[in-house]
Amino acid sequence: MGLLSDPNRRRALINLLTRLNAPICAVCYIAGVAWFMGLAFEPFTLRTYMSENAMGSTMVEERFPAGERALATGREFAAHKKRAGGMPVDWLVKTMQSRGLEVFTQKFSRTLPFPDENKERYMVKGTNVYGILRAPRAPRTEALVLTAPCSPGDDNNQAVGLLLGLAQYFRNQIYWAKDIIFLVNEHDLIGMQAWLEGYHHTNTTGIDWSPLQGRGGSIQAALSLELSSDIITSLDLVLEGLNGQLPNLDLANLFYAFCQKIGVTCTIQGKPCCPDHDADGNEASQRPTMGGPRAFFTCHHCWQVRTNDFSFINQILKLNNLLERLHQSYFFYLMPSLSHFVSIGYYMPAFGLLAVILLLRALDLWVQLATPPVRTEDGIADLEQSSPEVLSVLTPLVISHLTGAALYFFPIQFQATAVEHFPVSESEAVVLTAIAIYTAGLALPHNTHRLLSGEGVEQDWRVLKLIAVLYMAVLLGCTALINFSLGFILALTLVPMAAFITPHRPKVLSAFIMVILSPACTLLFLVFFFQDLQEIPVSFEDGWMLFLSVISQGILDHSLYGSLVYPLIALMVYPCWLLFWNILFWK
Question: From which domain of life does this come (predicted)?
């Protein structure tokens, strides 16, 4: 405290930080990258362990004798689905009622903002069917959810059969402390979102749904079943939820512990991992690339398990023993392997080392702005260098954010006009409009200066950069707290650009570097990087088409599910990047 309270020592510290600002920033950047790469190794990685005693492996009956019956039910469901040309609602209602459940249906519909070419749909209509097994000896204030999506074709029929088999098996048990909801949802995530909105009496995505006639207690945990074969040889764990949210780590630990106990091979993100081996760099670096809204519940994707090994699903019984919501383990973590995890206390310093660069640059700019103006020989201060104009600073801020607002609103609003004047489909029109607006933002410096009454002074760009640097620090910090992977990737590319851009840098080279480090080019590079991680390399033409598809899917995910990635980029990250682009071409 004495160092900061003593004016002389404080001034000496500030002088040291400003004099060595560039070397310290370079060291912090290298240290941040090195720290992140070190997360794949001890001592940063910790072995997983169970924090919730109520989920111990000895507290449930781990037998499910009705595997063959569940498989036969799955075949029967497939036959009725084929005959009905979709989800056999009436058959599901009768089957669930025969299992002793309280059965209800929910109709929903959604018109997409533009056709989804990946799934070939525009007008979506469907029905969710769910049955509730009431807790016989409890106040019915809490519930567990078991769900199996009704997928097109022959996919996931076994999961629906397993779901109905479990309903019949659970009906004969008497020790339930929570309601159990068995849900078969149509149209994958849209149906799930409609059911969740109806269950919680909210509507944030514009889906039209009928009110639910039956409800259970407050949902404590959920398990999504996806089976692709009658024969099971391995189980895969997919953790990511909407906007980078993660389930409580104890759920993942429960999955891994039981797989070890019954001797079933388990994978994470489709990648095998050795339980006694340190996490490798590829697994850790894969983590940021897996963002995206892939599920609303914790999803345990199950591949090819032997039918008489269906007993692993009885792990859901352990959740029945919970006396309160899962809270003792982590909600913020990285999982490079099923046997190891990285807690928030270990991975946030990697981001902090990058973020401190922005604060150091802000300190340097503040000192420069606070320096007394240079006086001429006659003792008069050079006001041209010391008095920044409000209009010079405010105009780029307003125009940058108006450009971001146009990038957010116009692609969907003007798709009809684009289709009318150009030979493109609706989805192509949306993506190409977004790219056109993004590219048009590069003309911002010229448009900005035309609006100014006069030329800006030297101090103006420093004030603008001080605002932009602090803006980026807050933006990236909030993003990293919610979704570390996304925040770190943005910081990795934007921080060095923001730290060293000035109007005095070589224009052509600096502009090229800024474009390479821009959000759009970062996304393009990640598309190719992700394909390499999946060991499916693509040509530039195929990669470009995937890039366009990612943009289209990002806009759709925001409209359908409330994903925040597209509005974050359009309304905040891109305008912030434009401020630095304006500074580079400052006159």
Answer: Eukaryota
Long-range contacts of 517-522 (CB under 8 A, 24+ apart): 517/493, 518/577, 519/490, 519/493, 519/569, 519/573, 519/574, 519/577, 520/435, 520/438, 522/489, 522/490, 522/493
Residue-wise pLDDT tens digits, 430-479: 999 999 999 999 887 655 655 554 555 678 888 999 999 999 999 999 99
Residue 474 corresponds to which tokens in the numbers above?
């807050």
Tokens of 70: 């569940």
Question: Are 320 and 395 within one domain?
Answer: no
Please state the rounded mean pLDDT for residues 14-34: 88
**Cβ atoms within 10 A of the Cβ of 35, count?**
19
Task: Tell me the C-alpha distance between 449 and 21, whole Å.
Answer: 30
DSSP state of 183: E
Domain-located, residue 570: yes
- Does residue 358 form part of some domain? no
- Are residues 410 and 529 located together in one domain of the fold? yes
Assign 430 to helix, strand or coil.
helix
* Rounded distance between C-alpha atoms, residue 342 and residue 336, angstroms: 8
Q: Are 195 and 158 in contact (CB under 8 A)?
A: no
Which of 569, 557, 502 is CA-nearest to residue 240?
557
Q: With the C-alpha atoms ordered 288, 294, 300, 301, is the resulting torsion angle positive or negative?
A: negative
Of 283, 352, 353, which is closest to residue 41 (Cα–Cα)? 283
CB-based burial, 349-387: b 16+ in 10 Å, e otherwise: bbbebbbbbbebbbbbbbeeeeeeeeeeeeeeeeeeeee
More confident residue, 456 or 270: 270
pLDDT at 121: 80
What phi, psi does 378 have (nearest 5°)? Answer: -90, 5
* Contact status, residue 244 vs residue 483, Cβ threshold 8 Å: yes
pTM for the full model? 0.84
Residue pair 513/497 in contact by the 8 Å Cβ criterion: yes
Number of domains in the chain: 2
H/E stretch holding 69: helix 67-84
pLDDT digits (tens, 9 = 90+) for 479-509: 999 889 999 999 999 999 999 999 988 989 9
What mean pLDDT is predicted for residues 345-372? 89
Domain membership of residue 299 as a residue range = 53-274+295-338
DSSP 375: B
pLDDT digits (tens, 9 = 90+) for 390-422: 777 888 899 999 999 999 999 998 888 888 888
Dihedral sign of CA atoms 495, 498, 504, 509 in order: positive
Dihedral sign, Cα of residue 288, residue 292, residue 294, residue 296: positive
- Phi and psi at 446, nearest 5°, equal -65, -45
pLDDT of residue 245: 81
**Residue at 191: amino acid letter:** G
Clarify whether residues 322 and 395 are in a common domain. Answer: no
Decide if pLDDT at 320 tops 80: no
Co-location of 326 and 402 in the same domain: no
Reported as half-sphere exposure (CB side, CA atoms, 13 A), residue 170 has a value of: 32
Q: Considering the chain, what percentage of its residues have pLDDT values greater than 90?
A: 32
Q: Tell me, what DSSP letter sits at residue 121?
A: E
- Indicate whether 255 belongs to any domain: yes
Give every strand in the sheet of 333-337, ordered side by side: 46-47, 340-343, 333-337
- Tokens for 28, please give them: 């912090």
**pLDDT of the residue at 86:** 87
